[in-house]
Write a structure and sequence with these properties.
Elements (H helix, E strand, L loop, with lengths): L1 E5 L6 H12 L2 E4 H9 L3 H8 L1 H14 L5 E4 L8 H9 L1 E7 L2 H7 L16 H15 L2 E4 L5 H14 L9
Parallel strand pairs: 1-3, 1-4, 2-3, 4-5
Helix pairs in contact: 1-8, 2-4, 3-4, 4-5
The structure holds adenosine-5'-diphosphate, shikimate-3-phosphate and magnesium ion.
Length: 173
């Protein structure tokens, strides 16, 4: 069984993911790095040359090809646009929506224009937030609020919720 983190850019998926993996003695995958490995370039370079839809396409390929167990998978914020990938991840994974407020995200993502977010060029942060909120909720098995400076207690909350769902986590400390 895997633990899959979804949510907006800046929500804390990568930060929480690696800490959580260490806590529960799972492997850790940040799918953004897998994408860069596959393309041999940065996410921004892929998007600059081929557009944001191409980045979403590669992301879906990478996620659909994952064949892992006992792993925490921190996805990129646009992963939920890939229905096939999400179906694949949900087959053997619990999906956790790391939910941050729009205001908190705005503080954390200061460089919205050039941070490599896979979005329509005319789309505002608010519009993107609203569009994606629906998708994160649709795929989430669990929702955990991303509280400023509270990474440790978020991890406690996740472990508690996973155990309540029957996940063994026998090596968790
Ligand atoms: N709970 C939190 N409180 C304060 N800052 C956080 C929290 N979680 C993440 N951050 C910060 O927000 C930024 C984005 O985090 P990151 O893990 O890269 O998010 P994501 O992978 O969801 O885009 C980083 O600078 C990180 O240190
Ligand atoms: O939300 C997005 O469109 C994206 C988020 C990024 O990952 P993080 O969510 O980890 O920042 C990365 O996958 C890519 O730049 C696109
Ligand atoms: Mg990330």
């Amino acid at each position: 069984m895997n633990i899959v983190l979804v949510g907006m850019p800046g929500a804390g998926k990568s930060t929480i993911g690696v800490l959580l993996a260490k806590r529960v003695a799972f492997d850790f995958i940040d799918s953004d790095l897998n994408i860069q490995n596959k393309t041999g370039e940065s996410l921004q370079e892929t998007m600059d040359r081929d557009g944001y839809l191409r980045l979403r396409e590669v992301e879906e390929e990478v996620l659909s090809e994952l064949n892992v167990k006992n792993s925490v998978i921190s996805t990129g914020g646009s992963a939920v646009y890939g229905a096939k990938a999400m179906k694949h991840l949900k087959k053997d994974g619990i999906v956790i929506f790391i939910r941050a407020s729009l205001d908190e995200l705005k503080n954390r993502v200061s460089n919205y224009e050039n941070r490599g977010i896979a979005r329509r060029p005319d789309q505002t942060f608010q519009e993107l937030f609203d569009e994606r909120e629906l998708l994160y909720n649709k795929y989430a098995d669990l929702i955990v609020d991303s509280i400023k400076g509270q990474q440790d207690s978020m991890i406690e909350e996740i472990i508690k919720a996973l155990r309540a769902r029957g996940l063994k986590l026998e090596h968790a400390i």
